[in-house]
Each structure stands twice: as structure tokens, then as C-alpha cells.
Amino acid sequence: MKPNYFISKDKSLLNVEAIQEFIANSYWGKNRTIEDVKTTIEHSYCFGIYTTDNEQIGFARVVTDYIYFGYFMDVIILDKFQGQGYGKKLVAFMLEDPIIKNLKTLALKTKDAHKMYERYGFNKIGDSALWMSVDKQILE
């Protein structure tokens, strides 16, 4: 059976207005402007998830040096697509991406999605209520 979605790193497919509207109404991105979102997209490694008709389902970006560290940011699923497993599909795809897979440390901040990220190997950092990471760096 053919999936009813696809994931792409092609930034030209992103519906920046839909992404900005969602983020500007989130607890972490209050009042983020369209120009802010365009700039963050320009300077990040981005992933979009879409219906087969190219409608934006969700978005995520990683701020990274492409060798050692990646910071997952703005991982979103638009309201009408929530609760259908798209967030899990997007995160799983990101973690299998060759660049992300080779990073030594991944980090993110979340207020309410700890359980979802724990299934992918993220652990809470210290006593922080927000920070989580996957640390693959071997210290010798």
C-alpha cells in the first residue's frame, strides 16, 4: 500500500505561512514573524512532511554543524493532521537521515513531548524540565 504522505528536504516545497502561523501560536515561538521563520529556515537543515497532494502536514528543522551536534527545533504537525502518527514518522525519518545519523550529539527542548522522544533514544538532561539529548560521543 502506497503511503499517503512523503517527506522532503526541499525547502522550496515548504508552506512558510502555515509553518509561521503554527509556530507563532505555540508556547515556544510566540509572535515569531514570517521574516523570522524565513531566516530560521534559510539557516537550518529542514524537513517537511506533506500529503501526496503537496499539502503541508508538518515541519522540523535542525541547527547543526553537520559533524558533531544537531539541535532539533520547531518540530510541528499542523493542527488538522495531529493525532495520526505523522510526528513519529517525521522524527523517525530525521533520525535515519545520513547527516543526522552520523552526528555525535542531538539535543532538543520540549515541555510536553518527552515520552515521544524517549522512544527514539532521547534522555532528559540533568534536572532540566525541558532539555533532552542523544549522546553518541565516546570520551576516551
Description:
With 140 residues, the protein is of the alpha+beta class. Helix content is 28%, strand content 29%. It contains five helices and seven strands, in the order βααβββααβαββ. The protein has helices at residues 16-24, 34-42, 86-96, 98-102, 114-118, and strands spanning 5-8, 45-51, 56-64, 69-77, 105-109, 123-124, 131-135. Strands 1-2-3-4-5-7-6 form a seven-stranded mixed β-sheet, sandwiched between helices. Strand 6 (123-124) and strand 7 form a beta hairpin. The termini are far apart.
Which properties best describe this structure?
alpha+beta, 7-stranded mixed sheet
Sequence-ordered SSE layout with sheet pairings:
Blueprint: E1 5-8, H1 16-24, H2 34-42, E2 45-51, E3 56-64, E4 69-77, H3 86-96, H4 98-102, E5 105-109, H5 114-118, E6 123-124, E7 131-135
Parallel strand pairs: 4-5
Antiparallel strand pairs: 1-2, 2-3, 3-4, 5-7, 6-7
Give me the oligomer status. Answer: single chain
Mean pLDDT, all residues: 94
Structure class: alpha+beta
Radius of gyration: 15 Å
The total of beta strands comes to 7
Strand order of the largest sheet: 1-2-3-4-5-7-6
